[in-house]
Amino acid sequence: MNQTQKNNGPSAIWVNEPNEGQLPEGTTHCAFHSSAQNQDVGYCIYLPPDYEINTHQYYPVIYNLHGAGDNELHGFDDVRVLDHGIRIGRWPPMILVLANGGMRTFYKNSYDGKFMSETVIIDELIPHIDQTYRTIADNNGRCIEGHSMGGRGATRLSMKFPWLFCSVFNLAGNVPRTLDGYDPSSPDTFPNNYLGPSKKNFIENDAYELLKTNVEQIRGKLRIQIWCGSQDLSHLMTIRDFHQALLEANVDHTFLEIEGLGHKKKPIMDKYRDIWFDYHVDSLTQAGGIIEK
Question: Which PANTHER family does the UniProt record give (predicted)?
């Protein structure tokens, strides 16, 4: 991708070929045909070491959403941490899917149908993975997570479709009040130029409104973990706002402000790599997607 594509708003390169030697062990780059985008969409998938041996075993899946300007060739540090943890017996065998949601789409469908990132993830990628691989094809075996735009997307998607997941991990992803941006007098200004003239579309893309609508399917059923660096000032305010909304809705969750760290993912992962997947594993265990650790 060039710098113009990366920085000038929504765009997408839906299939991105990895360089030789780029993929971590156990990871494959694949693609499926998206009817919503009328083209192929790439993803990377990590399969645990025993996948080809234990042919009768079905595995829980973690969907990892990338940040702004990125694509399916992301999250390789996550893969390496998970693979190491599985091999030393810290975590049970799991599948990790690295999705492609397009650049700066925030995993929302545009009203004009040009970018259908929500549909690509929810209605196409997840069913494709369940049909192609030996997954636990239910919410008790499915988690979603992401960093930055990916954390924002994972949060909103889990609020909108809580019955699909048992666990969500938002790492430093803004949680804005999207409905507050609705202004039909400014159709050419974001988010109006992306979500369009209908107020209903703003409500359906607002994590706070979705929390209210689906609270009975969220409370006690979807486990929520939110982390943010204390120096990540451009993201921390909306994350604190959503944390407060969860408290007011009596939705139990884990909230951590990491002292002294900013928005970059790697320093946070380096600090917590030994427990990086503990929350998902605990969630899967409580939901019944993992019988034994």
Answer: DIACYLGLYCEROL ACYLTRANSFERASE_MYCOLYLTRANSFERASE AG85A, ENTEROCHELIN ESTERASE-RELATED
Residues sharing a CB contact under 8 Å with residue 213, sequence separation 6 or more, in sequence order: none
Q: In this structure, is the dihedral angle defined by the CA atoms of residues 116, 99, 277 and 67, taken in order, positive or negative?
A: negative
Q: CB of 280 within 8 A of CB of 167? A: yes
**233-248 and 207-218 helices cross at what angle (nearest 10)?**
40
According to DSSP, the β-strands at 167-171 and 223-229 are parallel
> pLDDT tens, 242-287?
999 999 999 999 999 999 999 999 999 999 999 999 999 999 999 9
Pairwise CA distance, residues 241 & 237, whole Å: 6
With beta carbons less than 8 A apart as the criterion, state whether 159 and 80 touch: no
From 3.40.50.1820, 1.20.58.100, 3.40.30.10, 3.65.10.10, which CATH number describes the 3-287 domain? 3.40.50.1820
Peptide bond into 49 cis (omega under 30): no
- pLDDT tens digits for range 87-100: 999 999 999 999 99
Residue 220's H or E segment, with its range, is none
